[in-house]
Structure formats: C-alpha cells, structure tokens
TrEMBL record:
UniProt keyword rRNA-binding, yes or no: no
Membrane-spanning ranges: 32-52, 58-77, 89-107, 113-131, 143-166, 186-209, 221-244, 256-274
Any coiled-coil regions, as ranges: none
Record has Membrane as a keyword: yes
Signal peptide (from-to): none
UniProt keyword terms in alphabetical order: Membrane, Transmembrane, Transmembrane helix
Lineage: Eukaryota, Fungi, Dikarya, Basidiomycota, Agaricomycotina
Protein name in UniProt: Family A G protein-coupled receptor-like protein
C-alpha cells in the first residue's frame, strides 16, 4: 500500500483528484455504452436470423460478432484494471492514483489489450466501409484504392501510437504525460480514419446521384447506409477537434467514438434486416390478397350459365389480372 506523501501541495492534490474523477466517470460511461451495445447486438442478431434471406448477410454478421468480441474483451480488461485500483488499492486517494498510473504489468497489459482491440476494430470497420463502397461501384478496385491506402496507413499510425505509449513512459508517475504524449500520432491516426470514412461516404453518395433512377427501389436501404457512415464521420470530426486542442473532454469523446464506431455497422445490419422482414410481410399480404381474389373468381364462374361460360371466364380472368395489379400497387 502506498501511503499519502505529507509534502503534497493543494495543487497536486487537486490534480490527483481530477485524474481519479476522470477515470471513475469514464468507467461508468464505458459500462453504460457496453450495455447499450450488447442490447443492440442482441436485437440485430435476432432480427437478422429471423430474416428469410440469411446467406447474403454472412460476411456482415461475422463482422458484427468479431467487433463485439474485441470490444467486450477490451471492456473486461479495463474493468478489471479499474477495479484493482479503486477496490483492491482503495485505502486512500494516493494508493488508487498510484495503482492507476504506475508502470506495472497490469498497466502494460491493459494498455496493450485495449489499444490492439481498438486498432483492430477500427481497421475492420474501415474495411467494411470500403467493401460497401466497392460493391456500390460495381466492384471496381481503382475506386477504393485511396481509401484502402488510408486504412493501411491508419493502421500503421495506430501501431506507432501504441509503441510511443510504451517508449514515452517512465517509472516516475510524475513524468507521465498522459494523453498529451500521444497527441501527434493520435491526430494522424484519427485523420486517416476520418479520411477513409469520408471518402467512401462521398463516393457512395456520388454513385447514388449518378444512378438515381436505377436505385430508386432501394432508396430506404441506401439511406440507411449513408446514415450509418454519416454518424461515424460526425463522431470522428468532433473527436478530432477535441484531441487537436488536447482537452480533458477528449477522454470521454474517445470512449464515445470507440462505441459509435462498432455500433454504426451493427445498426446498419439490423435496420436492413428489419426492412427485409417488412418487405417479406408485405409480400405475404399481396399473396393472401391474390388467393382471396382467385377463390372469388372461381365462385363467380360457377354461377354463370353453361352457354356463356367461356366468355365469362375470359372476362373474369381479365378483371382478376387488373385487380391483382391494383392490390399490389396499393400494398
């Protein structure tokens, strides 16, 4: 147990309490977001597996499951690290602060697992966005060349950021620079991630505008794709602005961005699956209407006189065809 130094100034005490308050609030926010994310994943998987067409969703379902596993592992490790500091070393405020900031095996493990999980999640999300853009552009590789290079460069920048965290740390907790030590690499990494997302989103929008008449029947799904990318892009822009100014709120923005990043593709898949289920229900209604019309037609046909059966059957068939068409359009 670390005893509280008697020579701590009031300013140093305030800094320590601010740091503890930041870590504690951030853990609460992370727990709430993890619970929300778990609920969204559960609903998405249920909706997707309930959809009539499942074969086309195998790739995106795999992405959702991998992202959830990576995020949950990072959450579990961070939770254990925070619990160790606040509970097992919670004798006084300085012992908690020392447990959080000291360069120990626990600190190294937490930093490594959380950073690698975040980097892999970002890379997978970027690849998913690039894949959507590639599909929209008719599988033309030259279209996604620049976003792909940005994603690769961003992964390299993330690796350098992780490396800088371990290089710039010392065993003297007074020399720890915290978030400021990683600002340069963080800015490069976030900028490249934002460039990947914005480029793919703009390319998708441009493609839709060019082929507006050809994709009108898929307008709802196209809108869902754009909304998903826009939500992630806006979060990245806000996060980039906060990190560039090195504000304390960037700690909270980092956590929010980490979950928006994985929630966006999950919501996309869930909404598309729900839309597919709705379309299937509409088709069932149309088929049911067609069956009722057929029964009514047969009933009316049996009531006709024998000498005009052929003519009435032809008229009934013609009317039935028009009725079916009208019902389908109204549904």
């Amino acid at each position: 147990m670390e005893s509280t130094p008697v020579d701590l100034s009031q300013y140093e005490r305030d800094l320590i309490f601010d740091s503890l308050n930041l870590n504690f609030n951030r853990t609460i926010l992370e727990s709430l977001l993890q619970g929300l994310y778990t609920l969204i994943v559960a609903i998405t998987l249920w909706t997707t597996f309930s959809a009539p067409k499942k074969s086309g969703n195998s790739f995106l379902l795999t992405v959702v499951i991998i992202l959830y596993v990576l995020t949950t592992v990072a959450f579990g490790v961070d939770w254990a690290y925070q619990r160790r500091a606040f509970i097992q070393n919670g004798d006084n405020f300085f012992s908690v602060f020392f447990a959080l900031q000291a360069i120990s095996p626990w600190w190294r493990t937490s930093q490594l697992v959380v950073s690698i999980s975040a980097g892999l999640s970002t890379f997978i999300v970027d690849i998913t966005i690039i894949w959507r853009c590639w599909v929209f552009w008719g599988r033309q590789w030259r279209i996604v060349l620049i976003p792909g290079l940005c994603a690769i460069a961003g992964t390299i920048a993330k690796s350098m950021q992780i490396r800088s965290v371990f290089i710039n740390t010392t065993r003297d907790i007074g020399n720890i620079g915290g978030f400021a030590a990683d600002t340069d690499w963080a800015l490069i990494y976030i900028s490249l991630t934002l460039a990947t997302t914005l480029l793919c989103t703009l390319l998708i929008v441009y493609r839709i505008v060019r082929l507006a008449s050809g994709v009108s029947s898929y307008g709802k799904i196209v809108g869902i794709v754009i909304e998903s990318s826009a939500m992630y892009s806006l979060t990245l822009i806000v996060y980039l602005a906060l990190v560039a100014r090195n504000l304390e709120s960037s700690y909270y923005a980092d956590m929010i961005m980490a979950y928006i990043k994985v929630i966006s593709p999950t919501l996309l898949i869930g909404r598309v699956a729900a839309s597919s289920n709705l379309n299937s229900t509409s088709q069932v209604i149309v088929n049911s209407t067609r069956d009722r019309s057929s029964v009514l037609s047969r009933f009316m046909t049996r009531k006709q006189q024998t000498d005009i059966v052929c003519r009435d059957v032809e008229d009934s068939t013609s009317s039935l065809g028009y009725f079916e068409k009208s019902e389908i359009e109204s549904v």
